[in-house]
Specification:
This protein is an all-alpha fold and 89 residues long. The chain has one domain (4-88). It is built from 4 helices and no strands. It is extended.
Length: 89
């Protein structure tokens, strides 16, 4: 009964964040499927195929429109910047 996650209140993400403080997540390379054809990584695939419909609709209702392509371009730019930063370290 002394596990710290018992005391966590809030969302599933809050509980997961506390649990992840106490574990080492190690990718199992043998069970990882190859990314789809035409994509170097699963992250590239996720960026190119991300669902932006709900965000587009919400932005329209808030009078802050942004096209789906603009959102994808922004994510792609962030990914490129992160990769450049990682290469420099």
């Amino acid at each position: 009964m002394c596990a710290s996650w018992f005391a966590v209140t809030g969302s599933d993400q809050d509980v997961l964040a506390v649990l992840l403080q106490h574990v080492d997540v190690v990718a199992d390379e043998t069970n990882r499927p190859a990314p789809p054809d035409g994509y170097a990584t699963w992250l590239d695939y996720a960026v190119d195929t991300m669902d932006t419909r709900s965000e587009e609709i919400e932005r329209l209702s808030l009078d802050r429109p942004a096209s789906r392509q603009a959102m994808r371009d922004a994510v792609r730019a962030e990914l490129v910047a992160l990769r450049r930063k990682a290469e420099g370290q």
